[in-house]
Structure formats: structure tokens, C-alpha cells
Amino acid sequence: MSSITLENIRKSYGGNGPAAISNLSMEIGASEFLCLLGPSGCGKTTTLRMIAGLEHPTDGRILVDGKAIVSVADGIFTVPEKRNMGLVFQNYALWPHMTIRENVSFGLTLRKTPAAERDAIVNQVMTKLGIERYADRYPAQLSGGQQQRVALARMLALSPSVILLDEPLSNLDAKLRLEMRAELKRIHAEAGSTIVFVTHDQWEAMTLATTIAVMSEGALQQVGTPDDIYERPANRFVAEFVGSLPINIIERDRGGSGPLHRFLDQVLAHLGIDGAAVGSAGIRPEATRLGTLSAQEATGCAAGQGTVVDIVPTGGSWIVELDVDGSRFIAIATENPRTAAGQRTHFWVERQHLHLFDRDKKRIAL
Question: What positions does the domain ABC transporter occupy (predicted)?
Fold first, then answer.
């Protein structure tokens, strides 16, 4: 399988606006499952299309296994069909007038693969993806999940060294998305392919990727394992973008004097961190606990009180919205909180679950 290197990639569509991609450098290891994650318009699909050869960078180089396939300065541009990469689009892009077998074998036919070899490959791939019984049907006769498997089969039949996926699951319902996530993990485990997967769904990225690259406004914010991205966000953007519920942010610039602000001052003094350098702190809802603590238990914990605004049961947990010092604060209770809107309640969080950010919104390591 192939490694991919992006060096100082810039992409501009002209005009006076900002570049779609600005100075992007990144290493994608062989057999890695990398998710490009970020909101709409951040540049993740543009990055994928430049790797595939469907977009030309304005500047920079792209290397596969150390060999340049794109170098603007040297005038190098390898056409898409010479890159040995498979691409699956969001809309599947199946030929409606062809049967499923004809769709899966389409790329092999263009390569002039001998018929016997082509049939063997197509049968093997269709069987692996569980679509062999639909071989003589047409795309319109299949469900969205089945069509997605056909698109994957057509791409896998070509044995690409790199698999590029552009939000392939966004058109599926929740159940089919779960099934296809499992399918993609199985494909990666069995084939060991290098996969680059574009998504705006942080849950998809966290459950699929070995490595996540978070992007915003054409710039790379952080690259790391799912645990790195979640537990050690490099800046406020990553902390606020990743998480099933938004992280609670305490702005120190507002000069608050409530219990959380007082606790933060104590923590900073204990750690020897200049409080003037800290712009904000983040606490994830799932790291917040409800209830009172003994004096011994409270050591190393931030504790406070808030007024319950709302309680939302989710089946296995309860989302509790609090008003703390006039600010909205979210906690997740794993047991019935036994409280109601309008009542006061205690909450606390352990010190290691605090995320500190400087005035430029960059992470401060505890």
C-alpha cells in the first residue's frame, strides 16, 4: 500500500478572496485510515480531489511513496488514471443503463482485462460485499446501501493502492450508515489499503479513522489519533468541533467571580501557570458529574452549583442543562439526576479533564 505526502499545498480559485487551501503539509502513512474532518467549506473535499488528480493545486507538491505525482514548480502532473487510486463519490455515480455486474466490471473493461480474469475478480468482490445476488439488476432496483456497496465494489475491483472516499455515507439512513461503517472497517482490516475519507461527521471520523486531520478555513488545525483529537485538542476550534455535545467554555476575559472561575485561579496557581496567559477553559459535558462531594473527594476537583434549566433523557443517560453564573453549562448524567427544572444542584469535574487555552485559543498543556 502507498504513503502520501502533501508539501506546502495551496489552492486558489483566483480573485481577491482567501485561498481555499493554504500551506497544507501532511503525511499519510501506508495502510493508514485517515479522515479529513471539518465543517462545510473548510477545504477537505478540495484536498481529496487534488490527491485524486481532479483538481490542480496552485502551488506545492504531492508525493506517493516518495515519488512526485504533482509538483507545480517542476511542471509535474500525473493524470488521475495513472495514479492507481480508487475514488467513491457521495452520489455513487453508477451507470443507470448497466446491470450491477456491468457497473462493477466497468473499470476492468476499460483496462482491457481478459474476460476470464475480469469475471473472477468481479465475482470475488461482489461476494465479499454481499451483492452477488443483485448481479443482473439495475441500480434503480437497489436500496441506497446496496448502491453504495456497488460503488465500493467497482472501485475495489481495480485493486487501487489508495482508496479515496468523499462523504460516501451521507446519503444513507442511520442503520445503513452503521452497516457501511462496519463494512469499511472490514475492508481496511482485510486489504490493508491506504484510505482517505472525507466527512463533516465527527462521530464517523472517531469510529472509523486510525488518524484524523481536522481542517478549518483551508488550514490544518490538528493531526492525531481519535484519542489525541478528543482528549488533547490543539486549540479551541478542535475542542468545540469534536464531541457529541459542545464543550463547555469558561471565558476568563469576562472577569467572572463564580466558583469555576475561582477554582481555575487556584489550579493555575498550583500548576505555576500565569493566569494572564489563559484566555479560556473547556469542560466536556461527559466529564461533568452531578452531586455533592466530601472535602476529601473534592481535592483536585472543580466544584460548583447551578440552576437546572432542562433535563433531556436519551435512553441510557440524561442531558442536564444548567445556568451557572448566568452562563449555559451542559452536563451528562449516567444515572437519573432526580432533580427538576428550577432546582439547584451541585456539579464537579476532575482537574485532568480541564482544557486550558491561551488568548490565541491554542492549547496550554497541563
Answer: 4-242
In the predicted model, what is the mean pLDDT of residues 137-149?
88
Instruction: Give the full edge-to-edge strand order of the sheet including 248-251.
Output: 248-251, 278-283, 354-358, 363-364
Evaluate whether 311 touches 351 at the Cβ level (below 8 Å): no
Q: What is the DSSP string of 209-245?
A: -SEEEEEETTEEEEEE-HHHHHHS-SBHHHHHHSSSS
Which pLDDT does position 205 carry in this prediction? 93
Closest CA to 333 of 321, 323, 341: 321
Look up residue 266 and give its three cell numbers. Answer: 487556584
CA-CA distance, 23 to 8, in Å (whole number)? Answer: 4
Helical H segments across the chain, by residue range:
44-52, 100-104, 106-110, 115-128, 144-156, 174-191, 202-208, 226-231, 236-241, 259-271
Residues in CB range of 278: below 8 A, 6 or more apart: 252, 264, 268, 356, 357, 358, 359, 364
Higher confidence at residue 60 or residue 190? 60
Q: What is the pTM of this model?
A: 0.86
Domain 4-241 has CATH 3.90.1170.50: no
In which region does residue 342 sit, left (phi positive, over 0), alpha (psi from -120 to 50) or beta (all else)? left
pLDDT digits (tens, 9 = 90+) for 279-332: 888 999 999 888 876 655 556 677 778 899 999 998 889 999 998 877 888 999
Alpha-carbon dihedral sign for residues 68, 74, 77, 82: negative
Q: What is the CATH number of domain 248-364?
A: 2.40.50.140
